[in-house]
Amino acid sequence: MPGTDIQAFDANTAKYDDTTANFTGTLQNGGSNVVVDSDIGSTVEAYSATNADYGDTTANFTGTLQNGGSNVVVDSDINSTVQAYDAGLGEIAALAVTDGNFIVGNGTAWVAESGATARTSLGLGSIATQDSNSVSITGGSVTGITDLAIADGGTGASTASVARGNLLPSYSGNGSKVLALNSGGTDVEWVTQSQVFTAGTANAFEHANSISDSITVSSGNNRLYIGDTTFSGTLTVAGKMVILDGPINLTGTMNLTGTLSVRH
Protein backbone atom coordinates (compact mmCIF):
# COMPACT_ATOMS: atom_id res chain seq x y z
CA MET A 1 0.00 0.00 0.00
CA PRO A 2 1.28 3.54 -0.77
CA GLY A 3 2.82 5.01 2.29
CA THR A 4 3.31 1.61 3.94
CA ASP A 5 4.72 -0.96 1.40
CA ILE A 6 5.98 1.55 -1.17
CA GLN A 7 6.97 5.20 -1.17
CA ALA A 8 4.02 7.52 -1.75
CA PHE A 9 4.51 10.24 -4.31
CA ASP A 10 6.06 13.38 -2.96
CA ALA A 11 7.05 16.37 -5.08
CA ASN A 12 10.09 16.85 -2.86
CA THR A 13 11.34 13.35 -3.46
CA ALA A 14 14.34 13.08 -5.90
CA LYS A 15 13.33 12.76 -9.51
CA TYR A 16 14.86 10.36 -12.02
CA ASP A 17 16.73 13.21 -13.65
CA ASP A 18 18.06 14.51 -10.33
CA THR A 19 21.75 13.57 -10.49
CA THR A 20 22.48 15.04 -7.09
CA ALA A 21 20.24 12.66 -5.16
CA ASN A 22 22.02 10.47 -2.61
CA PHE A 23 20.96 6.91 -1.86
CA THR A 24 22.10 5.70 1.56
CA GLY A 25 20.30 2.38 1.72
CA THR A 26 21.08 -0.99 0.17
CA LEU A 27 20.02 -1.89 -3.36
CA GLN A 28 19.34 -5.58 -3.89
CA ASN A 29 20.45 -7.13 -7.24
CA GLY A 30 20.05 -10.85 -7.31
CA GLY A 31 21.18 -11.05 -3.71
CA SER A 32 24.40 -9.06 -4.26
CA ASN A 33 25.07 -5.54 -3.04
CA VAL A 34 25.39 -2.82 -5.64
CA VAL A 35 28.71 -0.93 -5.48
CA VAL A 36 28.28 2.23 -3.49
CA ASP A 37 30.63 5.07 -2.54
CA SER A 38 31.93 3.26 0.50
CA ASP A 39 33.21 0.42 -1.72
CA ILE A 40 35.53 2.66 -3.73
CA GLY A 41 39.08 2.41 -2.51
CA SER A 42 38.31 -0.69 -0.45
CA THR A 43 36.65 -3.43 -2.56
CA VAL A 44 37.08 -1.67 -5.92
CA GLU A 45 40.00 0.37 -7.30
CA ALA A 46 39.48 4.08 -7.14
CA TYR A 47 40.20 6.09 -10.27
CA SER A 48 43.75 7.47 -10.47
CA ALA A 49 45.19 9.48 -13.34
CA THR A 50 48.67 8.16 -12.50
CA ASN A 51 47.73 4.51 -12.94
CA ALA A 52 49.08 2.89 -16.16
CA ASP A 53 46.60 2.88 -18.98
CA TYR A 54 46.37 0.65 -22.03
CA GLY A 55 48.50 2.99 -24.08
CA ASP A 56 51.31 3.21 -21.50
CA THR A 57 54.09 1.04 -22.93
CA THR A 58 56.48 1.88 -20.09
CA ALA A 59 54.43 0.29 -17.35
CA ASN A 60 56.14 -2.55 -15.46
CA PHE A 61 54.26 -5.61 -14.26
CA THR A 62 55.90 -7.38 -11.31
CA GLY A 63 53.27 -10.00 -10.59
CA THR A 64 52.50 -13.32 -12.29
CA LEU A 65 50.14 -13.49 -15.24
CA GLN A 66 48.26 -16.77 -15.49
CA ASN A 67 47.62 -18.26 -18.92
CA GLY A 68 46.05 -21.68 -18.83
CA GLY A 69 47.97 -22.51 -15.67
CA SER A 70 51.40 -21.51 -17.09
CA ASN A 71 53.34 -18.38 -16.36
CA VAL A 72 53.60 -15.83 -19.13
CA VAL A 73 57.15 -15.39 -20.50
CA VAL A 74 59.00 -12.52 -18.86
CA ASP A 75 62.42 -10.94 -19.41
CA SER A 76 64.20 -13.40 -17.11
CA ASP A 77 63.11 -16.31 -19.33
CA ILE A 78 65.03 -15.03 -22.39
CA ASN A 79 68.25 -16.99 -23.02
CA SER A 80 67.19 -19.55 -20.41
CA THR A 81 63.84 -21.12 -21.32
CA VAL A 82 63.24 -19.25 -24.60
CA GLN A 83 65.60 -18.33 -27.47
CA ALA A 84 66.61 -14.71 -27.73
CA TYR A 85 66.57 -13.11 -31.16
CA ASP A 86 69.65 -13.93 -33.21
CA ALA A 87 70.53 -12.40 -36.58
CA GLY A 88 72.16 -15.67 -37.76
CA LEU A 89 68.99 -17.62 -37.06
CA GLY A 90 67.10 -14.98 -38.97
CA GLU A 91 69.40 -15.53 -41.98
CA ILE A 92 68.87 -19.30 -41.86
CA ALA A 93 65.10 -18.89 -41.60
CA ALA A 94 65.16 -16.69 -44.70
CA LEU A 95 67.04 -19.21 -46.88
CA ALA A 96 65.19 -20.96 -49.68
CA VAL A 97 64.20 -24.56 -48.90
CA THR A 98 65.15 -25.74 -52.39
CA ASP A 99 65.83 -29.48 -52.68
CA GLY A 100 69.58 -30.13 -52.64
CA ASN A 101 70.57 -26.89 -50.89
CA PHE A 102 73.21 -26.98 -48.15
CA ILE A 103 73.52 -24.34 -45.43
CA VAL A 104 77.09 -23.01 -45.51
CA GLY A 105 78.88 -20.16 -43.80
CA ASN A 106 80.63 -17.88 -46.30
CA GLY A 107 82.63 -16.01 -43.68
CA THR A 108 80.10 -13.28 -43.04
CA ALA A 109 76.66 -14.89 -43.25
CA TRP A 110 74.75 -18.15 -43.67
CA VAL A 111 73.98 -18.92 -47.31
CA ALA A 112 72.42 -21.76 -49.30
CA GLU A 113 74.64 -23.61 -51.79
CA SER A 114 74.16 -26.57 -54.11
CA GLY A 115 75.90 -28.45 -56.92
CA ALA A 116 79.49 -27.57 -57.77
CA THR A 117 79.49 -24.58 -55.39
CA ALA A 118 78.58 -26.81 -52.44
CA ARG A 119 81.16 -29.43 -53.47
CA THR A 120 83.85 -26.75 -53.53
CA SER A 121 82.89 -25.64 -50.02
CA LEU A 122 83.06 -29.28 -48.86
CA GLY A 123 86.47 -29.75 -50.48
CA LEU A 124 85.27 -32.40 -52.95
CA GLY A 125 86.85 -32.94 -56.35
CA SER A 126 85.53 -34.35 -59.62
CA ILE A 127 85.58 -37.92 -58.30
CA ALA A 128 82.59 -37.01 -56.12
CA THR A 129 80.34 -37.00 -59.19
CA GLN A 130 81.57 -40.23 -60.78
CA ASP A 131 79.40 -43.34 -60.86
CA SER A 132 80.54 -46.17 -58.61
CA ASN A 133 80.76 -48.51 -61.61
CA SER A 134 82.78 -46.06 -63.72
CA VAL A 135 85.50 -44.40 -61.64
CA SER A 136 88.53 -42.79 -63.23
CA ILE A 137 91.45 -41.82 -60.97
CA THR A 138 94.28 -39.75 -62.45
CA GLY A 139 97.21 -38.36 -60.50
CA GLY A 140 97.67 -38.31 -56.75
CA SER A 141 98.77 -41.24 -54.59
CA VAL A 142 97.28 -43.77 -52.21
CA THR A 143 99.18 -44.64 -49.03
CA GLY A 144 98.56 -46.47 -45.80
CA ILE A 145 96.01 -48.93 -47.20
CA THR A 146 95.67 -52.68 -46.80
CA ASP A 147 97.44 -54.62 -49.54
CA LEU A 148 95.10 -55.00 -52.49
CA ALA A 149 94.23 -58.63 -53.17
CA ILE A 150 95.17 -60.26 -56.48
CA ALA A 151 91.47 -60.93 -57.13
CA ASP A 152 90.89 -57.17 -56.99
CA GLY A 153 93.71 -56.36 -59.40
CA GLY A 154 96.52 -56.00 -56.86
CA THR A 155 99.52 -58.10 -55.86
CA GLY A 156 98.48 -58.92 -52.30
CA ALA A 157 101.77 -57.43 -51.11
CA SER A 158 103.48 -54.15 -50.30
CA THR A 159 107.02 -55.16 -51.41
CA ALA A 160 108.32 -56.22 -54.83
CA SER A 161 109.77 -59.53 -53.67
CA VAL A 162 106.57 -60.64 -51.95
CA ALA A 163 104.56 -59.48 -54.95
CA ARG A 164 106.67 -61.64 -57.29
CA GLY A 165 106.19 -64.62 -55.00
CA ASN A 166 102.43 -64.07 -55.02
CA LEU A 167 102.14 -63.64 -58.79
CA LEU A 168 104.62 -66.21 -60.12
CA PRO A 169 104.35 -70.00 -59.88
CA SER A 170 105.52 -71.39 -56.56
CA TYR A 171 109.24 -71.09 -55.85
CA SER A 172 109.26 -74.29 -53.82
CA GLY A 173 111.31 -77.06 -55.47
CA ASN A 174 112.17 -74.89 -58.47
CA GLY A 175 115.62 -73.66 -57.58
CA SER A 176 117.94 -72.86 -60.55
CA LYS A 177 115.05 -73.18 -62.99
CA VAL A 178 114.06 -70.50 -65.42
CA LEU A 179 110.71 -68.94 -66.21
CA ALA A 180 109.22 -69.73 -69.59
CA LEU A 181 105.94 -69.50 -71.39
CA ASN A 182 104.10 -72.82 -71.33
CA SER A 183 103.45 -74.78 -74.50
CA GLY A 184 99.88 -73.52 -74.72
CA GLY A 185 100.99 -69.91 -74.50
CA THR A 186 98.52 -69.28 -71.69
CA ASP A 187 100.77 -68.81 -68.64
CA VAL A 188 104.32 -69.06 -67.38
CA GLU A 189 106.00 -71.97 -65.62
CA TRP A 190 109.35 -72.98 -64.14
CA VAL A 191 111.43 -75.18 -66.45
CA THR A 192 114.98 -76.51 -66.50
CA GLN A 193 117.54 -74.98 -68.80
CA SER A 194 117.45 -78.06 -71.00
CA GLN A 195 113.73 -77.56 -71.49
CA VAL A 196 114.44 -74.08 -72.73
CA PHE A 197 117.24 -75.26 -75.03
CA THR A 198 115.11 -77.84 -76.79
CA ALA A 199 115.92 -79.31 -80.20
CA GLY A 200 114.62 -77.35 -83.15
CA THR A 201 114.57 -73.97 -81.41
CA ALA A 202 115.44 -71.49 -84.11
CA ASN A 203 117.60 -68.40 -83.72
CA ALA A 204 117.83 -68.72 -79.92
CA PHE A 205 119.95 -66.46 -77.78
CA GLU A 206 121.20 -68.08 -74.57
CA HIS A 207 123.29 -67.04 -71.62
CA ALA A 208 123.94 -70.25 -69.76
CA ASN A 209 126.88 -71.35 -67.62
CA SER A 210 126.24 -75.06 -67.39
CA ILE A 211 123.95 -77.20 -69.51
CA SER A 212 123.54 -80.78 -68.41
CA ASP A 213 120.83 -81.93 -70.79
CA SER A 214 121.16 -82.80 -74.46
CA ILE A 215 121.02 -79.87 -76.84
CA THR A 216 120.22 -80.02 -80.55
CA VAL A 217 120.53 -77.20 -83.05
CA SER A 218 118.69 -78.40 -86.13
CA SER A 219 119.71 -77.65 -89.68
CA GLY A 220 118.74 -74.14 -90.71
CA ASN A 221 118.62 -72.94 -87.08
CA ASN A 222 121.07 -70.67 -85.30
CA ARG A 223 122.03 -70.63 -81.64
CA LEU A 224 124.16 -68.03 -79.86
CA TYR A 225 125.74 -68.49 -76.44
CA ILE A 226 127.58 -65.86 -74.44
CA GLY A 227 130.14 -66.67 -71.77
CA ASP A 228 131.85 -69.82 -70.59
CA THR A 229 129.53 -72.67 -71.43
CA THR A 230 129.78 -76.26 -70.26
CA PHE A 231 127.88 -79.03 -72.02
CA SER A 232 127.76 -82.25 -70.01
CA GLY A 233 125.09 -83.92 -72.10
CA THR A 234 124.95 -84.61 -75.81
CA LEU A 235 125.44 -81.63 -78.07
CA THR A 236 124.20 -82.02 -81.61
CA VAL A 237 124.80 -79.18 -84.05
CA ALA A 238 123.30 -79.55 -87.52
CA GLY A 239 122.71 -75.85 -87.94
CA LYS A 240 124.96 -73.04 -86.74
CA MET A 241 126.11 -72.41 -83.15
CA VAL A 242 128.21 -69.46 -82.03
CA ILE A 243 129.75 -69.09 -78.60
CA LEU A 244 131.09 -65.64 -77.76
CA ASP A 245 133.46 -64.95 -74.93
CA GLY A 246 133.84 -68.69 -74.45
CA PRO A 247 135.46 -71.07 -74.03
CA ILE A 248 133.26 -74.09 -74.58
CA ASN A 249 133.68 -76.96 -72.15
CA LEU A 250 132.44 -80.25 -73.50
CA THR A 251 132.28 -83.13 -71.02
CA GLY A 252 129.63 -85.08 -72.83
CA THR A 253 129.24 -86.08 -76.48
CA MET A 254 129.13 -83.76 -79.46
CA ASN A 255 127.71 -84.53 -82.89
CA LEU A 256 128.75 -81.80 -85.30
CA THR A 257 127.42 -81.76 -88.85
CA GLY A 258 126.82 -78.06 -89.01
CA THR A 259 128.93 -75.07 -87.93
CA LEU A 260 130.34 -74.41 -84.45
CA SER A 261 132.16 -71.11 -83.92
CA VAL A 262 133.81 -70.26 -80.63
CA ARG A 263 135.23 -66.77 -80.19
CA HIS A 264 137.15 -66.12 -77.03
Description of the molecule:
This protein is α/β, with parallel strands linked by helices. Among the domains are: 146-191, no CATH class; 194-263. 11% of the residues lie in helices and 23% in strands. It is built from four helices and 18 strands. Strands 9-12-15-18 form a four-stranded parallel beta sheet, with no helix packed on it. The longest helix is centred in the middle third of the chain and has 8 residues, at 87-94. The protein is rod-shaped, with a radius of gyration of 57 Å. 5% of the residues are buried.
Secondary-structure topology with pairs:
Layout: E1 28-29, E2 32-33, E3 66-67, E4 70-71, H1 87-94, E5 102-105, E6 110-113, H2 115-122, H3 160-167, E7 178-181, E8 188-191, H4 193-196, E9 204-206, E10 210-211, E11 215-217, E12 222-226, E13 229-231, E14 234-237, E15 240-244, E16 248-250, E17 253-256, E18 259-263
Parallel strand pairs: 9-12, 10-13, 11-14, 12-15, 13-16, 14-17, 15-18
Antiparallel strand pairs: 1-2, 3-4, 5-6, 7-8
